[in-house]
Amino acid sequence: xxxxxxxxxxxxxxxxxxxxxxxxxxxxxxxxxxxxxxxxxxxxxxxxxxxxxxxxxxxxxxxxxxxxxxxxxxxxxxxxxxxxxxxxxxxxxxxxxxxxxxxxxxxxxxxxxxxxxxxxxxxxxxxxxxxxxxxxxxxxxxxxxxxxxxxxxxxxxxxxxxxxxxxxxxxxxxxxxxxxxxxxxxxxxxxxxxxxxxxxxxxxxxxxxxxxxxxxxxxxxxxxxxxxxxxxxxxxxxxxxxxxxxxxxxxxxxxxxxxxxxxxxxxxxxxxxxxxxxxxxxxxxxxxxxxxxxxxxxxxxxx
Length: 303
Prior knowledge:
By secondary structure, the protein is an alpha+beta fold. It has 3 helices and 18 strands. About 25% of the residues lie in helices and about 40% in strands. The strands form 4 sheets. Strands 3, 5, 6, 7, 9 and 10 form a 6-stranded mixed beta sheet that branches. It is elongated, with a radius of gyration of 42 Å.
């Protein structure tokens, strides 16, 4: 009478157990389940393939590679493993052709210092085929390439988001070579921190120019910390006008120098002897012209 219930229970538990320790289609491993060893497999059909695997906590990870891309189908090839491009000691062995495929697997103890690029390599007679597993903690990267610009007295909101929820979030502000911790007790009237699983936000109100700088949001995992940098630049309302004011000042100075030069040239020409002689000659010429006009008029009247 219990057999239908047992069968139903098996159908529920077996997929859950299998999902927790073995997956090939999802490159994101949510490794929160208390398992000793996690499996990761891949099928290599070409000469090279790369897969990214994000890990949350220290684990034993079994990596398995299957290669069926060798057209010569040699009875055996040499297989070995590399870590960050360097061959791992004592990993080289002979891999036999089984069911038209070559299979290579190995268990690695993964912790913070052992994250990196793991390659399974199949070395045949004339070529090398390899599969790269890039093991890393969840990464955010830099959220904004350009700084966040805000005015004095305003507020600014900085946000960070990551795929998998971390153990905790922490905010810092760079202060020279040191990092200043920001938490709920750091001036609560100006700093507010919001956390919602894989998202965090930092709000800074009543900004001053001292608040300019680089802020760091840290996602803390058991295996490693992932960080992102955000730059904030606080400016006064006069800051955008500074280029315009500088141009106006340059124009005023240039006009003043031109007028000063013209005035100086005018005074110099009027005070020099040459200038006086030219003035006398001009007056004398004007007098002669006037006399000539008078004599001509007199002669006409006489006629």
